[in-house]
Amino acid sequence: QDEYLDQWGKALEQSPLANQQTDVASLQASIAYHMNASLFRTQHNLEKVAVYQALAHSMADKLLLDWNRTQQRYRKDNPKRVYYLSMEFLLGRALDNAMLALHMKTAYQEAVQGLGFRLEDLLEQERDPALGNGGLGRLAACYMDAAAALDLPMWGYGLRYQYGLFRQSVQQGFQVEAPDDWLMRHHPWEFPRDIKYDVQFYGYVATKMNDKGESRLFWESDHKIRAVAYDVPVPGKDGFCGNIRLWASQPPHHGGFDLDAFNQGNYDQSIASLKDAFLLTSVLYPNDNHQAGKELRLKQEYFFVSASVQDVVHRFKRYRCPWSEFPNKVAFQLNDTHPTLAIPELQRILVDVEGLAWDDAWDIVTRTFAFTNHTVLPEALEKWPIYVMEKVLPRHMQIIYDLNLFFLQKVEEKFPGDRDLLNRVSIIEEASPQQVRMAFLAVVGSHSVNGVAALHSELVVKELFNDFSLYYGKDKFINITNGISPRRWLYQANPGLRDLITHTLGSEDWVADLPQLQKLAPFADNLEFQQQWMAIKYANKVRLTQWIRDDCGLTVDPRALFDIQVKRMHEYKRQFLNILGVIHRYRVLLQMSPEARRRVPPRVVIFGGKAAPGYAIAKLVIKLINSVADVVNNDPVIDDHLKVVYLPDYNVSLAEKIVPASDISQHISTAGTEASGTSNMKFVINGGLILGTVDGANIEIRDEIGEDNIFLFGTLADQVADIRHAQKYHGVLLDANLQSVLDAIQAGVFGDASIFNPLIDTLTYGGDFYLISEDFDAYIKRQNDVDALFLQKAAWAAKSIRCTAGMGFFSSDRSIGQYASRIWKVDKTALGNGSTSTAD
Ligand code: GLS
């Protein structure tokens, strides 16, 4: 075949793919071509969605070429590669992002205009791929974006869920869930590959002789499901293009059809394995910071890591390097514990399949894996009952037992006679039932463990893995503070601000070198600059206002103070505190004279976020918000002084509209509970001030932008335990203002009071675990400070500018750079001239 390689290269160079022009007429030609050839439609039958799809195909052609060139170069140069294993990639829409990355938006805008369409309308046709729950999945997307921009040879591996995170609507104030059938319509942003691996479940472990006459343990099962690869290109910079490989499940044989069963009239049986395979990757579990504990979820986790590890081993073997080279060519990053089974899976492949000695294999494994912890909440820490593991993955359970035994022997050597310690660090929890502690397995199998913000990383060592840090030493446990993509969250989401910054700094270099934003600081007190700055904020608020009108049928005034809390609904994030504060504000406003009321700046309080379908208390908070909105928004005395909005179906594309429009946003978790938060960074980089607790990345944001530019309040993390302790013994003494707010709810001011009883009980009988009463007074006072500052337009504008100026540290490029140098030990590869034939 090699003698024809040149010919293939030449043929490609002559092909339309390699000869794409970017003038308007050529782009129109390419859109028309795809309308006919890819969608099989004509210009006599044009809907917006079809034009969007043709446009997306046209854009994807350009990415394809970059993808091939980048991946071919990696294949040729064989650098050390990073594999980011994540059950979630919350990508958001692709088209706008790709057009901006390749500097083609203006040309396409003109092209579609000439064909009778507005680009903004077409962009709205794209469905969000919602393959993630919240911050953890969105972080994975920002990291893939950064790696592509930096030309870092990193691939993401994940699952191609048929249904993403459920779609949320609100009916009578309650959350209603519907399946997210995002693949119902043709999706031009993925490329199915002819790459397949079988993954098995259940079965038994036997001893067998191998070819060399050695006896080996062997796991056998008839229950197999096939993983097939779909590649998702990640646009980078200067022609780089990264990749996310998502696995879909298929039946292993004959398309899953049992002809014998069919012939016997047993129709259900004839497609049984088809149903099995379909179910496996059908849906993303909708829990954030909470373990679901279902057998199907365990199977998803194993399916995903087994296919990924097989694929990586296959790629490594292509170069015929000795196994000892594996850690020099491969780095696996575990995005939380969900992919932890990759550790025993690689050990199994090395020992059972490749025939390595146990210790050699384990040395390779532990030099290859690194683990990121994303939460200290106990309910989120994955544990799998042993009886489930033994049934689903019998060989892995044996491997985990052995790993644990050898690990505990070493601990015993270092700390002889400390039985309590052995109990505490054992991968197997001696509870009833016995369980595998996945976080401990991840720590033992990894060479590096990191938290995602300074405070969180401290708590990870102090609270979660204290014993492990004594055993391994502190160097294994590090902090890498999260970051966000400045490309999506400023450049794309806020074109007005982007252009002002570029104009002021003289070039677009700040996007790739975010600390340059600091050069805005000298303009903070410049009145003319302030006016330009705030005019952009105002325009973004107007844009959101239109969305609120279309989506909620509510008219709000863009001159009001926009106060926003959008994130997953969770008790620890304390949307409850926010809405209780709103009720307090409502009552205070009602008691004021009209003149006094006019002196308070009008506010629009905006909420958004989904609650896990099984999380009753979080769903009740949604109901309370909507009930309060009903009353407040229709109270003629209050008029425009206060409006409450609940935006349904919060997702990435909605976030792109909301984030640039905030005056203030709330990040008010109980101290010590929010590992980092990343939306806080998105709001601040867009010149939004924040009201927050001394928690997660809020702390580092304060350090970067300055204490004067952030409204912090409330209990500190190291006080929480003592307060809870005291509450347990002395009961909760409710704050007086809070008590009157609760009285109002219970008096039926917001409709049927009885439905809110379980919610109010969390404060009283429940012991107020999240310290809402404790923090209530400080919260209200800080909100009053926000009001006062908002009235001083110039002072507010100056702070807003200083916020953006101080955010250079929070680029995902900085985070990925730190992962690369401190954990993966990989460099940016030099841009080579790899050939353009199809890779991998
Ligand atoms: C999370 C944390 O809750 C967030 O604070 C964090 O920003 C995010 C990314 O590190 O990870 N952990 C989790 O389980 N879901 C999250 O969003």
From TrEMBL:
Any one Gene Ontology cellular component term annotated for this protein: cytoplasm
InterPro entries: Glycg_phsphrylas, Glyco_trans_35
GO biological process, one term: glycogen catabolic process
Keywords carried by this UniProt record: Carbohydrate metabolism, Glycosyltransferase, Pyridoxal phosphate, Transferase
Top enzyme category: transferase
Residues bearing PTM N6-(pyridoxal phosphate)lysine: 682
UniProt GO MF annotations: glycogen phosphorylase activity; pyridoxal phosphate binding
EC number, UniProt record: 2.4.1.1
Any Pfam family: Phosphorylase
Domain of life according to the entry: Eukaryota
Chemical reaction(s) catalysed: [(1->4)-alpha-D-glucosyl](n) + phosphate = [(1->4)-alpha-D-glucosyl](n-1) + alpha-D-glucose 1-phosphate
Cofactor(s) this protein cannot do without: pyridoxal 5'-phosphate
Function according to Swiss-Prot or TrEMBL: Allosteric enzyme that catalyzes the rate-limiting step in glycogen catabolism, the phosphorolytic cleavage of glycogen to produce glucose-1-phosphate, and plays a central role in maintaining cellular and organismal glucose homeostasis.
Family, as annotated: Belongs to the glycogen phosphorylase family.
Protein name according to UniProt: Alpha-1,4 glucan phosphorylase
Species whose genome carries this gene: Hesseltinella vesiculosa
